[in-house]
Amino acid sequence: MKNIPTVQLLSLTFLLFFLLSCTSDPKTEANNANHNSPDTSSYPFKATYSSDVAISAHAENLQEVLTIWKMFETKQIAAMKKYYADTVKYEDASGFTFYGKSDSLLSFAKQDIEGLDSLRFDISMWQNIHINDKNEDWVYIWAVERRYPMKGNADTSLIHEQWKIDNGKVSYFNQYKSKHTH
Fold first, then answer.
1. Phi then psi dihedrals of residue 2, to 5 deg
2. What's the CATH code of the domain at 60?
3. pLDDT digits over 127-162, tens only?
4. Helix or strand holding residue 60 (H, E)
5. For the whole model, what pTM was predicted?
6. Domains in the chain: how many in total?
7. Cα 180 to Cα 51, 129, 148, distances in angstroms
8. 119 sits in which H/E element
């Protein structure tokens, strides 16, 4: 057997080390470390609801809420019923609060959408989360809403909604809205 010169051995060792180090993604490792490590920072405020939040393992919650949004956008109100709990609470951006049967909420939604020629959502971001200390699942969505009434001028708003999912059904959601000017 031939002896491998030291320079070649070092080069081979370095090449092997380099190839092995390329197999792990430092960004992924850093993100995993950030999501799995408890936050020990000190903040000037304390959250009144919770600050113990993690990414949800339940992708179906996000799928459900996005499906509801698409159904609302395309005026498929009756098809949305299967996604709601029997009793739902809704708080809109104007201060209106609804608490009651999902059938009544969907009737209210139908009246809202029937006054429009069309509606379009441009969703800029969503977040599917689990609140650990309350054992709750939420979906947050940020979007631009473009409403085109049958009569009158189009209305564009920036909206943010928070959807609470209990046992696979929407039990609560709220909305924040700001006029969008360009």
1. -80, 150
2. 3.10.450.50
3. 999 999 999 999 999 999 999 998 888 999 999 999
4. helix 59-73
5. 0.77
6. 2
7. 29, 27, 14
8. strand 116-131
